[in-house]
Amino acid sequence: MPAALAVHPGSGHGAAARALDAVVARIRPVVDELTVVSADTVEESRALMVQAKDAGLDLLVVLGGDGSVHQGVQFCAEHGVDLAIVPAGTGNDLARALGLPGDPVPAADAVAKALVNGTRRRIDLGKLDGGPYFGSVLCAGFDSAVNERVNRMRWPHGRRRYDLAIVAELAALKHQRLVVETEGERLELDATMVAIGNTGYYGGGIPVCPGADPADGWLDVTVVGKASRLDLLRILPTLRTGDHVRHPFVRTLRARRVELGADNGWVSYADGERLGPLPVVVDCVPGALTVLA
Fold it and tell me: What is the pLDDT of residue 158?
């Protein structure tokens, strides 16, 4: 099996670069050929992946964080190449949903074992109408505003940056009119945030769509209505357990296509990557990607 390993050295504040030799040592013996490609930008990464495909490629192993995996998802879904994930970022949400270890070396061992045993599965992907695929969660509203603020911050690093951004966005909290339309339901409400999950996790392990299954042909939708600052403070601890869906101002839906309407200034993020402002239309694409897991 010809394989390429795409590494983004800066992922996880250098964790990907530090793990590279150990990961290569585990993958190389179980494939016919392994080409290692290293990229610092999205454009460079995509170009190197296409070159590897043109040379003959059956498997792409991505060593990096959620942004790196997001690019791997695009390439593999578009070119019919299998994907393996060796997480080395701060979120690692798609890897978590697939049951992979959170550290790169144990994850590489799991990938090598899956290669030897021929263990593969097909999973669904979300896809924006006219836009990219995503593997985990698309969000807009309060949580995407936190992402926007985090991306503007240079200090501190890690989870503390998110904690400070959450506090700042709570202080600036504003509700916006949102329309959520599926095949069988239409909601129009003042909302705090919305999340569309192909898998359950975002933000480094928060099960925002706790019932999402990436192999059932459905998207799970979580809508938080007009929640006050106090409501959000109360709901935050339950996000880690998935119990937030029990709150009276939280609605959950399941759909094959979801349209988020209203030009309300919200920006959408998926797999932790900035996509652009609402409105957006999202489809579930069943069995769009083959993964080793």
Answer: 62
**Mean pLDDT over the full length of the chain:** 91
Q: Which residue type occupies 93? A: D
Q: Cα torsion for 144, 67, 58, 77, to the nearest 10°? A: 20
Do the Cβ atoms of 12 and 89 come closer than 8 Å? yes
- Give per-residue pLDDT as tens, 258-283: 999 988 889 999 998 999 999 999 99
Strands 273-277 and 82-87: unpaired
- Quick check: helix, strand or coil at residue 123? strand
Q: What class, spelled out in words, does domain 133-286 have in CATH? A: mainly beta
284 compared with 159, residue with greater pLDDT? 284
Q: Give the integer Cα–Cα distance in Å for 140 and 277.
A: 9
Contact 6, 73 (CB under 8 A): no
Tell me the average pLDDT across 224-239.
Answer: 89
Q: Encoding tokens for residue 249?
A: 């101002």
Segments making up each domain of the chain, as ranges = 2-119, 133-286
If you classify domain 2-119 with CATH, what class do you get?
A: alpha beta
Strand partners, 190: 177
DSSP conformational letter for 155: S
User: What is the token pair recorded at 40?
Assistant: 């610092």
Residues 109-137: tens digit of each pLDDT: 999 999 999 999 999 999 999 999 999 99
Q: Which residue type sits at 127? A: K
Answer whether 280's CB lies under 8 Å from 268's CB. yes
> For residues 290 and 122, what is the distance between their CA atoms, to the nearest angstrom?
4
Question: What per-residue confidence (pLDDT) applies to 165?
Answer: 83
132 within 8 A of 191, measured Cβ to Cβ: no
CA atoms within 13 A on the CB side of 233: 8
